[in-house]
């Protein structure tokens, strides 16, 4: 509000006209308001930065709490263990034990299967292979062996859709990065061992076909035996003439590299490789290993080159159930069981196959 002065001053600053001025003094211009108490600019900037930092930290904390915990992938490239992926997503394995990326086992057993073997897998799940994830987990804990069906992929979208429906139901597959093709079985075996080694930490890796009857408890007893050789190749060993006639089954296209008779190697329906052997295969460069037409011959040739110990065990190629049989199949009539979907169920009904006691290691 303007201030008006009504006093007469005789100060030298007033006009010296000799008489008092009758005019009102001009109002003084309001001076700028005295500075109010305010924070210095640096303090304001610092306070603002602290506020923004605190706000961002709060938002991040809320987001972290609301964000779902990332799931373990259990993958190696395009290879995947659907069983552990299922337990990871459902968090159910916490009731049974720790869920780790590469669990330790006595052995990993890959049951090789194909898209057209739905009836075989169904027969296996109704016999020695558990038909639900919890049963598969119990078998793993009881034997120290992990079991999965092993399969590649297909460009046929219908086949893949049907397979994924089966995967969703049973959760018992391991996918490998390979196009399924019968003529490329050696490549499938190599892809299997590479993926199995990356996904599982096992003392032994077992390749088995989906048309044999297996006793998991007896297989575990076999693998638990003490061995002096770290490079071990276990199977039903054989030799025989090389088939060079293209019209005959088991034709060997590269037979000229072998000669008239095969070297000692295991039958293909089931064999075992120790961890050090598989580690060497897993780190082998692509195209550095020779591939023959037949898968069992191919594996046998690698074993010769790697200087492994050949352990011949006839209990894993028994044509009938006995007190010592580990794997039963119709050798040499069929490569596996003849009519496996039916024979698997027949064998399981026999007490000698499914209920006879497991013998101690020294009796095998």
UniProtKB/TrEMBL annotation:
Record's signal peptide: none
UniProt GO molecular function: hexosyltransferase activity
EC number in record: 2.4.1.-
Keywords: Glycoprotein, Glycosyltransferase, Golgi apparatus, Manganese, Membrane, Signal-anchor, Transferase, Transmembrane, Transmembrane helix
UniProt pathway: Protein modification; protein glycosylation
Keyword Oxidoreductase: no
Span list, region Disordered: 1-23
Compartment(s) of residence: Golgi apparatus membrane
Presence of the UniProt keyword Transmembrane in the record: yes
InterPro entries: Glyco_trans_31
UniProt biased composition (Low complexity): 11-23
Membrane topology: Single-pass type II membrane protein
One cellular-component annotation, GO: Golgi membrane
Cofactor: Mn(2+)
Pfam families on file: Galactosyl_T (PF01762)
Transmembrane annotation, as ranges: 43-65
Role description: Beta-1,3-galactosyltransferase that transfers galactose from UDP-galactose to substrates with a terminal glycosyl residue.
Family to which the UniProt record says this protein belongs: Belongs to the glycosyltransferase 31 family.
UniProt name for this protein: Hexosyltransferase
Organism of derivation: Juglans regia
């Amino acid at each position: 509000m303007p201030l008006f002065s009504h006093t007469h001053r005789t100060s030298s600053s007033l006009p010296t006209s000799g008489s008092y001025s009758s005019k009102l003094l001009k109002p003084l211009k309001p001076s700028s308001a005295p500075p109010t108490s305010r924070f210095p600019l640096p303090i304001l900037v610092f306070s603002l930065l602290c506020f923004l930092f605190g706000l961002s930290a709060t938002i991040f904390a809320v987001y972290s709490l609301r964000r779902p915990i990332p799931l373990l992938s259990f993958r190696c490239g395009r290879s995947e263990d659907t069983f552990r992926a299922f337990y990871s997503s459902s968090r159910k394995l916490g009731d049974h034990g720790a869920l780790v990326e590469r669990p330790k086992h006595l052995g990993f057993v890959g049951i090789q299967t194909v898209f057209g073997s739905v009836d075989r897998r169904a027969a296996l799940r109704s016999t020695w292979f558990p038909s639900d994830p919890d049963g598969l987990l119990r078998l793993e804990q009881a034997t120290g062996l992990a079991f999965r069906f092993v399969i590649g992929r297909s460009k046929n979208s219908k086949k893949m859709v049907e397979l994924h429906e089966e995967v969703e139901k049973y959760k018992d597959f391991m996918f490998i990065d390979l196009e399924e093709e019968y003529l490329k079985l050696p490549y499938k075996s190599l892809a299997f061992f590479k993926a199995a080694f990356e996904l599982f930490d096992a003392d032994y890796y077992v390749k088995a076909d989906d048309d044999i009857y297996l006793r998991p408890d007896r297989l575990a007893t076999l693998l638990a035996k003490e061995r002096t050789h770290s490079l071990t190749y276990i199977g039903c060993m054989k030799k025989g003439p090389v088939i060079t006639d293209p019209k005959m089954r088991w034709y060997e296209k590269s037979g000229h590299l072998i000669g008239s008779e095969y070297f000692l190697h295991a039958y293909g329906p089931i064999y075992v490789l120790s961890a050090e052997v598989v580690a060497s295969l897993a780190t082998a460069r692509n195209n550095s290993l020779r591939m023959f037409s037949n898968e069992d011959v191919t594996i046998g040739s690698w074993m010769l080159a790697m200087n492994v110990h050949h352990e011949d065990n006839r209990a894993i190629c028994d044509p009938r159930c006995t007190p010592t049989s580990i794997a039963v199949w119709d050798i040499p009539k069929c490569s596996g069981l003849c009519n496996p979907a039916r024979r698997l169920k027949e064998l399981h009904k026999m007490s000698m196959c499914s209920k006879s006691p497991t013998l101690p290691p020294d009796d095998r």
